[in-house]
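Hi all, long-time lurker, first post. I run a small reading group and we've been trying to get comfortable going from sequence to structure in the token notation. Rather than ask abstract questions, I figured I'd post a concrete chain and ask someone more experienced to write out its structure so we can walk through it together at our next meeting. Sequence below, copied exactly:
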Amino acid sequence: MKDFQSGSYRVQLSGYQSFSPNPINRQWVIDDPGLITLLSEADRQIGSLDMYSRYVPNVDLFIKMHVIKEATTSSRIEGTKTNIQEALMEERDLNPEKRDDWKEVQNYIGAMNFAIAELERLPLSSRLIRETHRILLSGARGAHKMPGEFRQSQNWIGGATLKDATFIPPHHSEVPDLISDLEKFIHNKQILFPPLLKIALIHYQFETIHPFLDGNGRIGRLLITLFMVHEGLLHKPILYLSDFLDRHRQLYFDHLSSVRINHNMDSWFRFFLTGVIETARKASTTLGEIIQLRQHLEGEKILTLGVQAKKARILLDHLYQRPIVDGSEVATITGYSLPTAYKLIDAFQQLEILVETTGFQRNRKFLFQPYIELFQG
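-- Answer (accepted) --
Happy to help. Here is the structure in token form:
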């Protein structure tokens, strides 16, 4: 990678300079032994996580919470302020000033779920990316910024105008060819390049092209997980880097900028692989804690409920998918009358499985607190 050239600046008619990245659909050579060592550890951690997830009973129950955490974290990088608990709530239960942020997170959840499901029938392509983007922006604050369409005007990052922008992506006339090159690179089996470095390069290039008027960061980070599933590195979408990137936000931006300015791709690769290693380890730990929690609740606490134990297990399975409930929902899930449902909720509160969150006497909501806490660390 020592001969890597990221691209060049071009002066546009209006006088500003936009950055034109070089195409990436070509052979790449890695000549850094330290990077190869880091890559080996990242591959090992990804393989370990994937194997671990295959042995977790009903792992799909827990993926929804991973998706919700990713949605809140990735959106937070863009300035949205919705936490996991708020993301689990209904819009009507939120203060009006929080609903715009909540809507953006819900769109991101919908976009992720759509893209992951579509991978089973569609290749990872510009079509899938545009459809995912359409869902991300529809009905939210970016609804007027061409949802599902590549931009047809100049955008920029940082600053109020082009004159004081931190970074100006390529002119919109270049976007179709650059995206075509990116798509060819994704599917080029003739290029022998490690998949984890390939997605690191794809993410960098996508963020540099910045093909949409809004939502580029969120779509670019989603691409990381989609590519891992597409390439078979993970059989389930269970690894998301946004938490790592959020905690090292300035370093994240600095590394992307360093590639463009200093042609320093090795440094970006090292940062990316470090994030994969740390995130995979943390995801494996969380899976282990979920298993332990489930064994503890089912093997000890639920058994104390006697004749209620059967319905309690049904409710517990539901809570792994939807960790916030009310009395009516519990009644529907269990087939109990509303008074009997509240008796089961009271039992779950005494066992410290559910915690009441509103403080109200009516319209109360109950949170599966010990489960939520596993995703807040």
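A couple of things your group might point at:
The domain at 291-375 is CATH 1.10.10.10 (Arc Repressor Mutant, subunit A).
The CA atoms of residues 244 and 275 lie 6 Å apart.
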